[in-house]
Amino acid sequence: MSTLKFSRVLITSLALVGATLYTSRAEAQSLPFKAVFTGTFSVTNQLVFSGEGQASHLGHSTINGTTISAPLGQASCPDGYIFFQIEIDFTVVTAANGDSLVMHNSGGDCINFVTGDITGTGTYNISGGTGRFVNATGTGAWHVAASLISSEFVLDFAGGISY
User: Fold this and answer.
1) CA 94, CA 51: separation in Å to the nearest integer?
2) How far apart are alpha carbons 82 and 108 in whole angstroms?
3) Which of 75, 119, 137, 163 has its CB surrounded by the most CB atoms within 10 Å?
4) Rounded to whole angstroms, how far apart are CA atoms 21 and 15?
5) In this structure, what are the phi and psi dihedrals at residue 35, rounded to the nearest 5 degrees?
6) Is 110 helix (H, G, I), strand (E, B) or coil?
7) What DSSP character marks residue 162?
């Protein structure tokens, strides 16, 4: 076999081994992600929320976010509730050491303006962050229970994360 042909075979083989190792490493880092946060919110022309809680891979952490939603009628809400669909959402979860995750949530909330009860569900997408989460990705579901009267919420996430 000529030296040139041997070199091409060797380079191709090394590239395939490297790609296999990289793929295996990336797949091995797909981990469960769960978090529960409690906090407060305010509503003007947008919803602004902040709180603290426990999150997989972050430990005790804070959450801060801004959401813009639009009312769409009753949709899939129970009687007496109005559905608000999330149009824009930006959420940051920050660990005690400063590493953070950037999340974008979709879905919506059912709001009862008589009782003040809010319940919402949807999905999240992790799109990077800082520190060890700079290249993080992930998806999953979220659920919120809140009150317009107390301006308090409980928000939980369950799904996956890779970093």
Assistant:
1) 11
2) 10
3) 163
4) 10
5) -155, 150
6) strand
7) B
Structure tokens at 125: 């997408």
Residue 29 has pLDDT above 60, yes or no: yes
User: HEC states along 19-78?
Assistant: HHHHHHHHHHCCEEEEEEEEEEEEECCCEEEEEEEEECCCEEEEEEEEEEEEECCCCCCC
**Region of residue 106 (phi > 0: left; psi between -120 and 50: alpha; otherwise: beta):** beta
List pLDDT tens digits, range 42-88.
999 899 999 999 999 999 999 999 999 999 988 889 999 999 999 99
Evaluate the CA torsion angle 56, 136, 39, 144 in order and state its sign.
negative
Q: Residues 112-135, buried b or exposed e (16+ Cβ, 10 A)?
A: beeeebbebebebebeebeeebee
Q: Which CATH class is domain 32-161?
A: mainly beta
The model's pTM is 0.81
Q: How many CB atoms sit inside 10 A of residue 104's CB? A: 15
Mean pLDDT of the chain: 87
The span from the CA of 107 to the CA of 113, in Å, is 19
**Which residues, other chains included, contact 18 with Cβ-Cβ below 8 Å and sequence gap of 6+?**
none
CA 29 to chain CA centroid, Å, is 17
Residue boundaries of the structural domains of the chain: 32-161
